Amino acid sequence: MMVAENTQSHLFLLFLLSLLTLSTSPTLSLHPEVQSTGYPTTATLDVSAALAQAHLALSYRPASSTELPSHLLPYDLSSAISVSLKSRDFLPSFVGSSAHGHPDYKALTLARLFRDEARVRTIAVRATLAFGAVADSVLNPNTNEEALQIAAVNSIMGSVISGASMGSGEYFSRVGVGSPPKPLYMILDTGSDVSWIQCLPCADCYRQSDPVFDPSDSSSYTPLSCNSSLCHSLVLSVCRNSTYYSSGPASASASADERCLYQVMYGDGSYTVGDFATETLTFGGSASVSEVAMGCGHDNEGVFYGAAGLLGLGGGPLSFPTQISARSITYCLVDRDSNASSILNISTAAATPSSTCTAPLLRNPLLDSFYYVELTGISVGGNMLPIPPSAFAIDESSGAGGVIVDSGTSVTRLQEPAYATLRDDFRAQMEALPPAEAMRPFDLCYNLSSRASVKVPSVAFHFPEEKALLLPAKNYLIPVNDEGTYCLAFAPSPVAFSIIGNVQQQGTRVIFDLVNDRVGFTPDMC
């Protein structure tokens, strides 16, 4: 009897010891599919503060501005260009209109989402053209030289639908154009290369906050010859032998019968057409760059919410950073519901990111406008999602895949399998919170109207060398109306790659080190 009891006691002790060993072993786990990151499992969402900021954004009424900003310039302008950066929803309005014209915050949100969907559609078409080896002319009704010349003479029947319908970008700055400089509001876009502004004479120009630029008033405006290398760098260009659009003074470089006519086509078949020229741009009131190649558009019908045009900050041969041989681009996007300003810095000096988180900057020769980052995974609630790194990699044979960092896209898009994994895991960890009706493109929304703050699962992007960017809760759970409905700001990607949008970038200083091919992320540095 005693032997039996001792044997049972011995077996029980061995059982307890085995459980202890299992629970403390660094190589074994009761849930081997869950990989802990060591990062916080939750984040605090300040519901009241976000709603208060949303109400302030809706009630904001901007004043007009005619001066170039001379503040916010902490950098050495001998090697850097710095401009003030603001959310496009705070662009000074045209005469007789309000800042937003939206009755409530839900209407403002829907307008933003409409712009965002259009932006993503445009990127999708560009990707289809690139990955499918389809010529740009497929979507362009005026690609042959004769047709373009006829279009120029006959007021150029095409149009570019910008802003709300084209989603060209979400942040803008004040830039001086010409000599003497005329201050104009321009959208800044890291996903576009060709810069352009509206110009007189207008065949059809949309309304903008500032007077439309008149190239004849600028001593530095120089039309480009159709034989110039810059003209040849355009995707679509022809020689114009008509003087219908006589933009600016005559010059030795381009007589009236040989000027370069540019056309930039967007994803829905819209396009802007005009003269391609060089001009002087002035930033921050004092830093000037001469001979910048840009479009002088004469038919730009559409809604750009008062902006005069677009400054292309992409990675292609005609982008502004490429033209000035920039070595780094740094920006910090303020909250889109805030009227505060931050700085965009384009430097011609070496700049290695001294950031909290750095990752490889990748390039895709099929889509050279975009800046790709090497993403290896995403965690929710402190645990890595079961998504293989290959889901975020660029396919070497087709060029598809990869992850771009885009200032013009608002909501982060993930390819469908990765998105579904994130959505389902986040939903499972949010079961204690009351759901709300979904709002396209968001699948997960929650009713937080009765709460001042709430703990939510943490979300982080992970990069090589065990680097990670832990997102603030307000960068992935955003208000969509005045009643306290918050939605997870991720959506499935309709394109063959993923996009890290500006909602997830808010409040984070982003630096593209173009020399060492690194991307740096530093939170709370606006």
Q: What attributes characterize this protein structure?
A:
single chain; 526 residues; alpha+beta; 6-stranded mixed β-barrel; 8 helices; aspartyl protease; protease; Peptidase A1 domain-containing protein; PEPTIDASE_A1; Aspartic_peptidase_AS
Can you describe what's shown?
Keywords: Aspartyl protease, Hydrolase, Protease, Signal. GO terms for molecular function: aspartic-type endopeptidase activity. This is Peptidase A1 domain-containing protein. The chain has helices at 2-24, 47-59, 105-131, 145-153, 229-232, 320-323, 416-429, 502-505, and strands at 35-36, 42-45, 80-87, 171-177, 182-189, 196-198, 204-205, 222-223, 237-240, 259-265, 271-283, 287-300, 309-312, 328-332, 342-347, 357-362, 372-373, 377-380, 383-384, 403-405, 412-414, 445-447, 454-457, 459-463, 467-470, 477-479, 485-488, 490-492, 498-500, 508-513, 518-523. Strands 4-5-13-6-12-11 form a six-stranded mixed beta barrel. Strands 1-19-18-24-25 form a five-stranded antiparallel beta sheet, with helices on one face. It contains eight helices and 31 strands. The N and C termini lie far apart (76 Å). Mean pLDDT is 79; it is low at 1-33, 68-77, 94-99, 134-167 and 242-254. The protein has 526 residues and is α+β, with helices and mostly antiparallel strands. A hairpin with a 3-residue loop joins strand 24 (459-463) and strand 25 (467-470). The longest helix is centred in the N-terminal third of the chain and has 27 residues, at 105-131.
